[in-house]
Amino acid sequence: MSKYKHFFIDLDRTIWDHERSSLESFKFIFRYFKLKELGIPSLDEMVSVFNSHNDILWSHYRRGEIKKELLSVKRFELTLNSFYIDNPGLSHEIAQEYVTMRPERAYLFPNAIQALSYLNNKYHLHIITNGFEEVQFQKLKITGIDKYFKNVITSEEAGVKKPDPFIFELAMHKAGASESNSIMLGDDLDVDIEGARNAGMDQLFFNPEELLHDVKVNYEIRDLIELKELF
User: Which residue in 93, 105, 106, 146 could disulfide with 24, CB within 3.0 to 4.6 Å?
Assistant: First the structure.
């Protein structure tokens, strides 16, 4: 019999296929705003540049160095500037369109529903996410997976972001859980896994790309369907 009673789960890149959803949104944005005519050679080049800026800005956001409103627009402003397009108004338009449409491009990882349905029959499930609160709740509702989760703990509610141990501690408190009967499932070794470890929780690393690493984790899977075999 499993010692766990509570599964805490990351959303983006663990259950929600962030890259696929984002790419579909960018396809629309690239056409709708006629970005090739403005000087961006291709969709692939735009996405590559955006991802580079976005990763850096998200690092600042996790450390509390910038607000989400700045992150949301700045990543597009920097992307356009990289192609010598200086148009703050356009940056704001694209940012708004991206945040609005992305939850509607609803893509889950393979076997997500099967895994959640299985876990839901045996454990209490909860979300811990750094994503923008209003967007994350949309994602859960649009995909119909909100029914599986008893609690959704966001970084905005906690006032801190993963990997800060407090967000994990708050999540356990809200769930009536303890370190000994909780486990965290996530895709990010620094944010989800290290954060959970520092909060005293066991960790389950979702590694679909089979990235090589030397981080010690309690469990590791590459497909969500493996949860049925492990738990």
Answer: 105
